Amino acid sequence: MTPSSEPNTRLEQEYWSNGLHLVAGVDEVGRGCLAGPVVAAACILPAGVEPLVGIRDSKMLSVRQRREHVQTIRDIALATAVGAASRQEIDALNIRVASMLAMRRALAHLGPWQRAIIDGPLFAEFADGPYVGVIDADATCLSVSCASILAKEARDALMCRLAQRHPEFGWDHNAGYGTAEHLDALRRLGPTPHHRRSFRPVRELIEATMCEPGSKA
Questions:
Q1: Reduced to 3 states, what is the DSSP secondary structure of residue 177?
Q2: pLDDT at residue 122 in the model
Q3: Strand ranges of the sheet holding 23-29, from the earlier edge strand across to the other edge
Q4: Which of 36, 88, 106, 125 has the highest CB neighbour number within 10 Å of its CB?
Q5: Angstrom distance (rounded) from CA 56 to CA 44
């Protein structure tokens, strides 16, 4: 697939032609971040919908483009929903399981659905059920591309709110990813309650601090 190509509804059409009209695209964002939750979205498009001009994987869109597309998606979709797994759940469960939990929560909030197309290979926990995993579905499958945009916008909005409490980390523009600015603030100021303790840069900082003379182990 070339970067200029747009997602299509070929996979959804296979289900629509077999009478399954409530096909949900599901995607998550924030797996690689050092802070904040992992967020997933689910989106059901109406059967027979034409490809939406400009809709792509959220990573290929500017902030302005994503914001413009969010309203288009909500206007056209039969249903959309967002789910999340918290920083505490990520640390307790690991990021893979937490991502699955966020997707399940998005689907639970969606209302009735018959099939779910999930970006990437299926987690083992999704193996038995009405799910299909598609590598790069966020770039090739329209409903999943829509879900990726909704999830990205929801998570970015949350990180902007958290940035007001912790402006030194730049979360309003790095969304919690490990940029040089974020890592520098982390070293200078230490982790916030929103940092993922199980992720290496945060974990190593905490471990180093605990080993300093006078610190409490």
A1: coil
A2: 84
A3: 79-85, 38-44, 23-29, 115-119, 131-134
A4: 106
A5: 16
What distances in angstroms separate CA 150 from CA 4, 38, 42, 73, one per listed residue? Answer: 21, 13, 8, 8
* pLDDT score for 5: 73
8 A C-beta contact, residue 36 and residue 158: yes
Q: Are 196 and 33 in contact (CB under 8 A)?
A: yes
Roughly what angle, to the nearest 10 degrees, separates helices 180-189 and 200-211?
20
**How much is the pTM?**
0.91
Range in 15-24, 90-99, 206-215 with the lowest mean pLDDT:
206-215
| Residue listed under structure tokens 């970067």 | 3
**Is it the case that residue 4 has pLDDT exceeding 70?**
no
Residue indicated by tokens 């940035």: 163
User: How do beta strands 38-44 and 23-29 pair?
Assistant: antiparallel
pLDDT, tens digit (0-9, with 9 covering 90-100), for 76-124: 999 999 999 999 999 999 999 999 999 999 999 999 999 999 998 887 7
C-alpha distances out from residue 122 to 11, 27, 97, 129, Å:
16, 12, 12, 11
